[in-house]
């Protein structure tokens, strides 16, 4: 892979770090990152060629996108997809921004796997680490000779996943907020997953929620229903038990994992893991 060449530019007392793209893209690759204390008006009728993250540090900006206008106050950011026409300008006399542009051979698919599929506006709570993480990237770019671009790529992935965890779109809660609501139940399940009597109504009652709302929370947090989460937890615990070796039979493993019927356990294990419990044991080098 060709090395990335980083160049530093001053932007009215701000800082801008550019990474020239090599012949072979990294899966995620930073093109530029920086801080602009005096953000100027920008008109891009053909959009930007890379993914473009822009957020406000101080003041407020105004966006126009597809005929609609948006404001960008502190604690908010926009992720613009490549080629989306847009304009933005300061709403106040001074608008300080930080920004990140990126691409890479898997950039779009990584974003899609996090359910980010189009240009999106994010906001977050004051204690969320979104801004701190981006500022840390700028700080590292200033002091680190990242000639391969690998450090920046790793930090970019961490930033995107942080945005997924703490970012809110519209009136929807963040993934972090969903996990906070579910945490008492998740901790309880870690201790009681082996009880075969656990049902959806029991889990909903533990949080004082309706079964329907609990399923909605699990779908938003994990993309699966509450009971599907319990099944995956039981299978994971069964794998942990089998990985430890010992002389426990499949029947004992099934019972400890919350299954009364070993055949049900074997069928569920095969459906989720694509192999039988005995085949899994052999992969771990365990011969029973």
UniProtKB/TrEMBL annotation:
Coiled coil: none annotated. Keywords: DNA-binding, Transcription, Transcription regulation. It comes from the Bacteria. InterPro entries: AraC-bd, Homeodomain-like_sf, HTH-like, HTH_AraC, HTH_AraC-typ_CS. It holds the Pfam family HTH_18. SUPFAM superfamilies: Homeodomain-like, Regulatory protein AraC. Residues 183-283 form the HTH araC/xylS-type domain. PROSITE patterns: HTH_ARAC_FAMILY_1, HTH_ARAC_FAMILY_2. This is AraC family transcriptional regulator. The lineage of its organism: Bacteria, Bacillati, Bacillota, Bacilli, Bacillales.
